[in-house]
TrEMBL record:
This is type I site-specific deoxyribonuclease. The lineage of its organism: Bacteria, Bacillati, Actinomycetota, Actinomycetes, Kitasatosporales. GO terms for biological process: DNA restriction-modification system. Residues 665-675 have a biased composition (Basic residues). Keywords: ATP-binding, DNA-binding, Endonuclease, Hydrolase, Nuclease, Nucleotide-binding, Restriction system. Pfam families: HSDR_N, SWI2_SNF2. It comes from the Bacteria. Belongs to the HsdR family. One of its GO terms (molecular function) is ATP binding. It is an enzyme of class 3 (hydrolase).
């Protein structure tokens, strides 16, 4: 019964949707049993190799029979001795970069040739063959057969494996992932109750040979579908909730053609399911090749034992959506053409904290440098995070991008003048209100002068009580080319306007894209959009992914708020009122009222030294008794830099600012929890 539900409610609708999008369907019974010695559709691959690999001058195929045989053998015999993951990484390199073939046939005319298995150029994607097979039977080396639900082949090469499970199962997605990993010969170790012998479903026979080239794994249940790779555990598979950048109208028409939705002339159309979205976006022929080439990357991770492993990560829906929107804006937007016009190729990508903005930037840079119209861009990444620099550098190795770092202003000026196809990191100092490069700073972030930061905050408060705008660095004009893309990390920060003014001088015609996940203060939100450009979201951003989206996707855990009161009372209030009356006795009632509105402010109360000291003591006690036992850390968000320094001094037991005046706030920190 369960098998029939899987076939009727999950597998058949999925295949029908693929057919409506242009995939050629071949039932598994027509294919017969695939031999793991050559786990490919050799006839389709041979035709594709001849079709794709042609001489540039006359378009005639140069591959002879021996060339084809050598190319197929090289892909089919990638060694599995070190496991399927390393074999998959090696095979991926062949798919993306091609096979260097020595002594090709005379039709080529050269000493060596590069054989491409897939046509990646956006203008020639029609040369590829897209075939879907359901109920594919594969026989492993032990003579045991496995039947895979759905496998997607491009030019006869298996790129996607789909496992379908009935939504009636207790954990259908998890069971599908475990089966897929078992097929791949890279089983997930189950722990705890799930590891008890004699319980749970019997896993299928492994066929790792087929998974050498598989780039994406899909766990489908009809209601939803989750996406991962050969290294993804159940917790790292993710659903696909976005239709953009695809057109929802096109997707609905395809579903109507497949008989999967009612006629549009009826009542309001039903919401698209998550399986329909994943299939309609990720597995669309053109999009699939885009994702495989640009949105599946290798990442090194450090295990609990200290070892380093390489895993494959695929973009989540919001990362793909944002990067594709940015690329389309770069391609279609108007570049700045004079002093009175603004560049229309940028915008702000607002993705909440913890949603993977660093990877979004990585995917975007990789996509830009692999696009034929954008490949010569100089990409300037302005950041204070060395982690982002390391991550981008490692991820871009496969794209052939030259990655360099400018630690000083002089270095950045030189690299901007040189231009060319490269990624330039401008490493700025993390703290302070100005724009200082890390190599030009007197001290790094671990040597912060907190006392000086406190004194600066006091000087600011004693003056206009408004943030003093730092001077704009006197950058010279370095490069007027429009083929420059500036990516600004943490675009909400106060230095953004200063950075904009500096870059406006140095690279006046560059496109600019800002990334942030922190709420932008009301006064700066419109200024931030003015600097980077307006987008199409309701708030004028290029793309948005808010906290509620991240919670729904389980990208971040839901935040639980526990209210803790910090009440205060005025000590010697009568004396304080009498002194105030003495000071203002010559003022008019209107002037007295205006002074009372101006002082004290909420910041004065929040920055009161006794109040800060009592709150710091309460927070430390709460952390030690409640948070620390769970192995967690804590972070303090203060009302100002001055207050932050005071909290630091109180928590560290260092010297505190001397309280001033006889009228002071005496804190009463409560233990109550608000609802």
């Amino acid at each position: 019964m369960v098998m029939q539900v899987e076939r009727d409610e999950v597998e058949r609708p999925l295949v029908a949707q693929l057919k409506a999008m242009g995939w050629t369907h071949r039932p598994g019974r027509e294919i017969g049993t695939l031999d793991v010695e050559t786990p490919l559709l050799a006839d389709l691959l041979e035709s594709a190799l001849r079709r794709i690999n042609t001489r540039p001058l006359d378009g005639v195929s140069w591959m002879g029979a021996s060339d084809v045989d050598r190319a197929i053998t090289a892909l089919a015999r990638v060694p599995l001795g070190e496991g399927v993951v390393k074999a998959n990484l090696a095979a991926t390199g062949l798919l993306l970069s091609g096979l260097v073939l020595s002594k090709p046939s005379a039709g080529h005319g050269g000493a060596s040739a590069t054989v491409q298995y897939i046509e990646w150029h956006p203008d020639r994607l029609g040369l590829n063959d897209f075939t879907v097979i359901d109920q594919l039977r594969v026989r492993n080396r032990a003579g045991k057969d496995s039947v895979l639900d759905v496998v997607l082949f491009v030019n006869g090469i298996p790129l996607v494996a789909v496992e379908c499970k009935s939504p009636d199962l207790a954990e259908p997605v998890r069971e599908a992932v475990l089966d897929l990993r078992h097929y791949a010969g890279n089983s997930v170790k189950e722990e705890g109750a799930r590891a008890r012998p004699g319980e749970g479903p019997t896993r299928p026979a492994g066929v790792p040979e087929l998974f050498r080239t598989v780039q994406l794994l899909v766990a489908a249940t009809g209601e939803t579908a989750h996406l991962g790779t050969v290294t993804s555990g159940p917790e790292h598979f993710h659903s696909w909730r976005s239709v953009e950048p695809e057109d929802s109208g096109t997707l609905r028409r395809e579903l109507l053609t497949a008989g999967l939705v009612p006629d549009a002339d009826g009542p309001a159309p039903a919401a698209l399911g998550e399986q329909q979205k994943l299939v309609g976006v990720v597995l669309r022929p053109v999009a699939l090749l885009n994702i495989v080439r640009h949105y599946v990357i290798e990442l090194p991770i450090v295990t609990d034992s200290g070892a380093t492993l390489t895993v494959k990560a695929v973009a989540r829906h919001q990362q793909y959506r944002a990067a594709e929107k940015a690329v389309r804006r770069l391609l279609d937007g108007r570049a700045r053409s004079g002093p009175m016009t603004e560049d229309e190729r940028g915008g702000v990508i607002w993705h909440t904290q913890g949603s993977g903005k660093s990877l979004t930037m990585t995917f975007l840079v990789r996509r830009v440098h692999a696009h034929p119209r954008l490949s010569e861009f100089t990409v300037v990444v302005v950041t204070d995070r060395t982690q982002l620099q390391t991550q981008l550098t490692e991820a871009l190795e496969t794209s052939g991008s030259d990655v360099v770092t400018a630690d000083t202003r002089t270095e950045l000026e030189g690299l901007l003048r040189a231009g060319g196809r490269r990624v330039v990191f401008g490493m700025i100092q993390k703290y302070g209100v100005g724009l200082t490069f890390s190599g030009d700073a007197d001290q790094d972030e671990d040597g912060r002068d907190l006392a000086e930061e406190y004194a600066e905050a006091e000087r600011t408060r004693a003056g206009t009580r408004a943030e003093v705008a730092p001077p704009v660095p006197n950058f010279p004009e370095c490069n007027t080319s429009p083929a420059i893309l500036v990516l600004v990390d943490e675009a909400h920060r106060s230095h953004t306007s200063v950075l904009h003014a500096a870059l406006r001088k140095a690279v006046p015609n560059a496109a600019k894209i800002g990334f942030t996940g922190t709420p932008i203060t009301t006064g700066r939100e419109e200024d931030t959009r003015r600097i980077f450009g307006r987008g199409d979201s309701p708030r004028g951003f290029l793309d948005e992914y808010r906290m509620e989206d991240a919670e729904h996707d389980e990208v971040v855990v839901r935040i639980r708020y526990e209210g803790r009161t910090g009440e205060g009372e005025v000590k010697d209030g009568t004396s304080l009122d009498r002194r105030f009356d003495d000071l203002v006795r010559d003022r008019t009632p209107e002037e007295k009222a205006a002074l009372l509105k101006r002082w004290p402010t909420g910041s004065d109360v929040a920055e009161s030294e006794p109040m800060v000291a009592a709150k710091a003591e309460d927070m430390l006690e709460h952390w030690v008794t409640t948070v620390l036992p769970g192995g967690f850390k804590a972070q303090v968000a203060a009302v100002s830099r001055k207050a932050a320094v005071e909290y630091h001094q109180c928590s560290a037991g260092g010297p505190r600012p001397a309280p001033g005046g006889t009228g002071r706030l005496r804190p009463r920190v409560g233990r109550r929890h608000s609802a």
